[in-house]
Design brief:
Elements lengths: L1 H14 L4 H8 L3 H9 L7 H11 L3 H16 L9 E2 L26 H4 L2 E2 L1 H24 L12 E3 L8 H4 L20 H6 L5 E5 L6 H14 L7 E6 L10 H12 L13 H7 L3 E6 L9 H9 L5 E5 L1 H11 L7 E5 L4 H11 L3 E3 L3 E3 L5 H7 L6 H9 L3 H12 L18 H18 L19 H17 L16 H27 L4 H30 L8 E3 L12 H34 L7 H31 L1 E3 L8 H42 L6 H22 L2 H15 L7 H11 L2 E4 L2 E4 L2 H13 L14
Parallel strand pairs: 4-7, 4-8, 5-6, 6-7
Antiparallel strand pairs: 1-2, 3-8, 9-10, 11-12, 13-14
Length: 816
């Protein structure tokens, strides 16, 4: 009955052409209350509240009576027993806000009674939110430690309030009703109090601005950890989303958030009680606080659309951006991010450098074995603090005013005893601040790859430890950075690296692989079933392989043209029936979708097989391909083979789709574990597919030939023919599926074989990426890698293009 009232209210509001915020402003009812009513989560309905909403929506007499009748039925029916709902505390909603306009007037029935009206959250959803919070906390704690943020102590990240033109009115930020005077909101603080500052913002919307390398990413990590540390039960879970991959003109914000959640947390594909995925349910229940990192990384032509889309929502969020790009978007849209307060990160001071840099040079053993601290930075810091500033000291102070550059300088000089930071004051070598920054960026990768990775850093995978040389590492990283720059992408996903190859190259690789795979399967099956000469077996294998290559290449080309040709990692794993690991999805719909797709592919493959037999007939039996009997037999075989391969494969793959369950919560926390889980999933699928396809094709072949025999006449098939076709189809079909139509298979063929074969990547690409992460060149953002900073990515990509003769570097502009 609650759902009936919510549906009715939502319909009336839509008819009135109002958003929830507009209805709240006109009625005096809080947005939170309206949302609870429309979603059916309220259990304490008041007639006065409904009257206020009806007046605001200008509801007619008939609809008013319908509202009253629905409410009366709800009040007379007993409340259904809840399977363990969890009560949401008032603090969770919009940071613990009062209803719009403050406390209600005495003549108005109170809209919110915490003890009775707190909306219940289903126990499954509450558990999912808690699991997500634990995983987010664990992930970013590990990432903060890996980035050595606290070694020797965190660099100070301070801010001042952003310019007024880039923030909304104070009354809007505080969500006040018309005529209510705003009060000053204290936004002062530093990185240690960012979560506390955010909780002071009534709207729950904050924009963090700063120039490149100013510490925005470190601030977001600290915000997430501190927010979770002080979160109340069922408070929103802050989740960091890298905004650069969002195209607001193609994907709605809600759908994009859900897709990113599922990518980084595959266990959220499980179904919530309402039927949607847990990821969708968490977003719809307002249990996720998006921390949108990198507004400036959105393609330039899409930033205005992104800002307009964000302005159409009331979603609490934290948004980070470089100030210049955000200012341009605000000026183009003629509006800031609505309801948002703003802060702008400040530069590091010379005093910050004096306190920090000397403590990064650790004591080392000299001569007598006694440790002492090398005065690595003494001369440089003395020049920075002399009363009369020189051109070199002023330039160096400007360069070292961001945490990024300080970190690069620390790596190159504090941790490399053979380097002297005094060279940073050489004005002839570094005539500008840009050249000095390029020097620090260029020296970072060679410096970290001159050091050997400590044994303890790879204790969990000692066999995979590598110490690649700086020259090779820089070339391989440059290739990856160029690939990401070319696609205007910041996420380095292992399943997308194959996209760096031309489409024609990928199609050629697929054709060759299909040809070899089908030819080998044909040879093996022919040797086991038929007693033929080696020449005839080789010819038959060549014809079969060529047909499979053409069919596979055609299908793959179609997928590239219409679907992008990139396969997402499997978010599911095979399961046995009755294990209690149910997705809760519609099995008939899932089966039908997979069956239809495989049926089409099976028909194409069956048609090709029929023509292979026709060619064999013309070569070994002296028949002409234009002979009427041969053509009739070929057409019959096309129908039979198409039905055998199509229905057999459709049944098997459809059943596999039904018997799938989401990955567990710990199976995909990092790119390495996601790759491992996909490899295991594909291996299990092949072990099941090969015998099932063989059995189904063998039995199906016998059944279909007998059913079609009255229509087509004697087909001349025996048991040996059925076993032969089944063996080839089962073996080749399962292998081709594994390598051509799964993310792991494409990774193996393109990234583990072809790219290393051409020298673009190392042979053990997985170990190389993991090693780059451990050295600090890459960072992890859920299931993908990213370069430590976008400026490092741009620098490596630019350097790579400069070393190639077949690239035009001018086409790729570097981001400042």
């Amino acid at each position: 009955m609650t759902d009936e009232l919510g549906t009715l209210l939502r319909r009336l509001r839509t008819q009135a052409g109002m958003t929830q915020e507009q209805a709240a402003e006109r009625s005096g009812v809080s947005v939170r209350t309206i949302r609870r009513l429309e979603t059916g989560r309220s259990r304490d309905h008041r007639l006065g509240t409904l009257d206020l909403l009806a007046d605001a929506l200008e509801v007619g007499p008939e609809d008013r009576r319908l509202l009253a009748a629905t409410l009366a039925r709800m009040q007379t029916e007993p409340a259904p027993a809840s399977p363990g709902p969890v009560t949401v505390p008032p603090e969770r909603v919009a940071g613990g806000l009062e209803p719009v306009g403050g406390p209600p007037a005495p003549s108005v029935v109170p809209l919110f009674v915490p003890a009775r009206a707190a909306p219940p959250i289903d126990g499954v959803l509450a558990a999912a939110a808690e699991e997500l919070a634990q995983e987010v906390r664990r992930r970013w704690q590990r990432e903060e430690e890996h980035r050595r943020v606290h070694d020797p102590f965190p660099l100070p990240v301070r801010w001042q309030e952003a310019p007024e033109l880039l923030t909304d009115h104070a009354e809007n930020i505080q969500r006040l009703a018309p005529g209510v005077t705003s009060h000053a909101t204290d936004l002062s603080g530093d990185v240690r109090s960012v979560a506390e500052v955010y909780r002071r913002i009534s709207s729950g919307r904050l924009v963090v601005l700063g120039r490149a390398g100013s510490g925005k990413s470190i601030l977001t990590i600290r915000f997430v950890l501190d927010y979770l540390k002080t979160a109340a039960p069922l408070d929103r879970v802050p989740v960091i989303f890298s905004l650069g991959s969002w195209d607001p003109t193609a994907v709605a914000l809600r759908d994009w958030l859900i897709d990113r959640l599922v990518r980084d947390h595959p266990h959220l594909t499980r179904r919530a009680p309402g039927g949607s995925t847990l990821a969708a349910a968490l977003v719809d229940a307002d249990l996720v606080l998006p921390v949108l990192d990198g507004f400036d990384e959105i393609a330039e032509g899409l930033r205005c659309a992104a800002l307009e889309t964000l302005n159409d929502t009331s979603l609490p969020l934290v948004l980070t951006s470089r100030a210049g790009e955000f200012t341009e978007a605000v000026q183009a849209v003629r509006a800031p991010l609505v309801w948002a307060a703003g802060i702008e990160l400040a530069d590091l001071t010379r005093e910050d450098l004096l306190a920090y840099l000397p403590r990064t040079a650790r004591p080392i053993a000299r001569g007598n074995g006694r440790g002492r601290t090398e005065a690595v930075w003494d001369f440089v810091l003395a020049q920075l603090h002399v009363r009369e500033k020189t051109e070199a000291s002023v330039r160096l102070a400007e360069v070292l005013s961001t945490p990024l550059m300080v970190t690069l300088a620390r790596t190159m000089y504090s941790e490399s005893p053979d380097r002297d930071p005094a060279e940073l004051l050489d004005t002839e070598r570094f005539p500008s601040g840009h050249s000095l920054e390029d020097h620090l960026l260029a020296g970072f990768v060679p410096t970290v790859y001159r050091r050997r990775v400590p044994e303890r850093a790879v204790a969990d995978r000692p066999r995979r430890q590598r110490n690649w040389g700086p020259k090779h590492a820089e070339r391989w990283l440059g290739y990856l950075a160029h690939h990401m720059d070319r696609l205007d992408r910041q996420d380095l996903a292992w399943w997308q690296i194959g996209e760096s190859l031309r489409r024609s190259t990928r199609v050629m690789i697929v054709v060759v692989f299909c040809t070899l795979c089908a030819a080998v399967a044909e040879c093996v099956a022919d040797l086991l079933v038929h007693d033929r000469t080696f020449g005839r077996i080789l010819l038959k294998a060549t014809l079969t392989g060529s047909t499979a290559g053409i069919a596979g290449g055609t299908l793959y080309t179609t997928m590239i043209v219409f679907g992008g040709g990139v396969f997402e990692p499997a978010r599911v794993r095979p399961r046995l029936p009755g294990t209690g690991d149910d997705l809760g999805r519609r099995p008939l719909r899932t089966f039908s979708a997979r069956f239809a797709l495989v049926l089409l592919g099976g028909c194409v493959l069956g048609s090709g097989t029929a023509w292979v037999l026709a060619l064999e007939t013309t070569l070994y039996r002296g028949r002409q391909l234009t002979d009427g009997a041969v053509l009739e037999s070929t057409l019959s075989n096309m129908l039979v083979f198409g039905l055998i391969f199509g229905t057999g494969g459709g049944l098997v793959f459809g059943l596999m789709a039904v018997l799938e369950a989401p990955l567990d919560i710990t199976s995909a926390a990092t790119p390495v574990t996601l790759l491992a889980s996909n490899r295991a999933t594909v291996s299990r699928q092949v072990l099941v597919l090969a015998p099932m396809l063989t059995l189904v094709i063998a039995l199906g072949g016998r059944v279909i030939t007998r059913l079609l025999q009255p229509l087509l006449g004697p087909l001349g098939w025996g048991l040996s023919d059925a076993l032969f076709i089944a063996g080839v189809g089962g073996l080749a079909g399962s292998i081709l599926y594994a390598f051509l139509f799964t993310a792991w298979g494409q990774w193996v063929i393109l990234t583990r074989v072809w790219l290393p074969l051409t020298g673009k990547l190392p042979w053990d690409t997985t170990a190389f990426l993991d090693d780059a992460y451990r050295r600090g060149v890459l960072r992890q953002a859920g299931a993908v890698y990213q370069f430590r900073h976008i400026r490092l990515q741009n620098h490596l990509g630019h350097s790579f293009r400069g070393r190639q003769t077949d690239y035009a570097p001018a086409r790729f502009g570097q981001k400042a």
